[in-house]
Amino acid sequence: MKQFFETMMQSLDVESFAPEEFIAQNDTVVVVGSQRMKVKRTAKGYEVAWVHVFNVSGGKVFRFREFSDTAAVMAAHSPGAGAK
């Protein structure tokens, strides 16, 4: 997880990151939220809602899944028109 977030922060500026709801059952934690980011390489921004699903065992995350608008993220990473 640490390496994932370090790599992500090398390419993005975080304008907002807002976890809004936490749902926990057994070894699963679901977090619903939104974020606004700017891609450093293209200077384009995007805003998306997301759902993060963490599976935890022994106090450590052993599985992470993210669901969001990948088309918006890809458009911001692509050169050319379409910056927000």
Radius of gyration, in angstroms, nearest whole number = 14 Å
CATH top level label: Alpha Beta
The third-level CATH topology is Nuclear Transport Factor 2, Chain: A
**Average pLDDT level:** 92
For the largest sheet, list the strands in their spatial order: 1-2-3-4
What's the shape?
A: elongated
Query: How do the SSEs run, as a string of H and E?
Result: HEEEEH
The percentage helix is 10-25%
**Secondary structure: number of strands:** 4
Major sheet, described briefly? Answer: 4 strands, antiparallel
Unreliable stretches, pLDDT < 50, 5 or more residues?
none
Task: Tell me the span between the first and last alpha carbons.
Answer: 28 Å
Tally of distinct domains: 1
> Any idea what the CATH architecture is?
Roll
- Beta-strand residue fraction: over 45%
Number of helices: 2
Alpha-beta classification: alpha+beta
Properties at a glance:
four-stranded antiparallel beta sheet, single chain, 21% helix, 84 residues, elongated, Nuclear Transport Factor 2, Chain: A, alpha+beta
Overview of the structural elements:
This protein has a four-stranded antiparallel beta sheet. The model has no long low-confidence stretch (mean pLDDT about 90). It starts with a helix and ends in a 7-residue tail after the last helix. About 20% of the residues lie in helices and about 55% in strands. By secondary structure, the chain is α+β, with helices and mostly antiparallel strands.
Topology readout:
Blueprint: H1 2-11, E1 12-25, E2 28-39, E3 45-57, E4 60-68, H2 70-77
Antiparallel strand pairs: 1-2, 2-3, 3-4
